[in-house]
Amino acid sequence: MLSTVSATYPLVEPMLDNPFQFFENGFTPWDCLDAFPSAPPSPKPFGSSSGSDESNRLGQNPDNSNSNSGSDEPNPPVPAIDERKRRRMVSNRESARRSRMRKQKHMDNLRNQVNLLRVENRELTNRLRIVLYHCHSVRTENDWLRSECSMLLKKLSETRQILMMRHLQQSTSAWPCNNIISATEQIPPSLITYS
User: Fold this and answer.
1) Residues 6 or more apart from 68 whose CB is under 8 A from it?
2) Where are the alpha helices (DSSP H) in the chain?
3) Per the CB 3.0–4.6 Å rule, which of 1, 78, 101, 137 could disulfide with 59?
4) What whole-number distance in Å separates Cα of residue 63 and Cα of residue 66?
5) Does residue 19 form part of some domain?
6) Nearest 5°: phi and psi at 14?
7) How many CB atoms lie within 10 A of CB 69?
8) Residue 66 located in a structural domain
9) For residue 27, what is the DSSP state?
10) Is 0.85 surpassed by the pTM of this model?
11) What is the span of the domain harbouring residue 105?
């Protein structure tokens, strides 16, 4: 088994030295060994014994030999089919690896976007808290200013009333009608005429 694999893949011997070595595509050596059968498939005998050993070694089955008996093209040899399968398998592994890398990159991008959105959300929440705090303090200050304004208006009204009362008291003491009696008493009698 090792001789067939080492002939196909000369890198198998260095892998035996280090059992944890990886291929370039990320698969372990035993992943590649599992892809190939341990023994070559045994050729199926023809219905008649007239077939040559060469056709048995190439792995022709009776269905293919009967269906292509009229054509000039010989069936492709088994190693070419195995090579095609191996190439297809390697290609599938590569495309699967590329697909995994694309998905991983997409997931990383989505994780980065989620982290950025969380940071932005935290910043917006903090800004909202600051704005709400300022709004509350402005409302409190506004309520305090309104109460002080109403108190000052009340004091102003009381002060106006006091000033008006004093002005009225001063003006009533200066009126001449209050001094009529005293004024007649002060006028000399010669100036008073009786009719």
Assistant:
1) 75
2) 2-8, 12-17, 29-35, 53-57, 62-67, 78-174, 180-186
3) 78
4) 5
5) no
6) -65, -25
7) 7
8) no
9) -
10) no
11) 79-170
User: Which residue, 22, 2, 4, 27, is CA-closest to 13?
Assistant: 2
What is the per-residue pLDDT for 169? 86
Indicate the SS3 state at residue 191: helix
**Rounded to an integer, what distance in angstroms lies between the CA atom of residue 108 and that of residue 104?**
6
* pLDDT score of 151: 96
The first and second tokens of residue 54, run together, are 């060469």
CA dihedral 126, 129, 130, 136 (to 10 degrees): 180
Q: Is residue 105 part of a domain?
A: yes
DSSP letter at 9 equals: -
Q: How many residues does the chain have?
A: 195
pLDDT at 172: 78
Residues near 37 by beta carbon (within 8 Å), at least 6 away in sequence: none
Residue 131 lies in a domain: yes
CA–CA separation, 163 and 166 (whole Å): 5
CB 24, CB 18: distance < 8 Å: no
| Rounded Cα gap, residues 1 and 37, in angstroms | 9
Which portions of the chain are predicted below pLDDT 70?
Answer: 1-78, 174-195
What's the confidence (pLDDT) of residue 80? 79
Query: Contact 97/26 with Cβ under 8 angstroms?
Result: yes
Q: What is the tally of structural domains in the chain? A: 1
As a whole number of Å, the CA-based R_g of the chain is: 57
12 in Cβ contact with 2 (< 8 Å): yes
Helix (H, G, I), strand (E, B) or coil at 53: helix
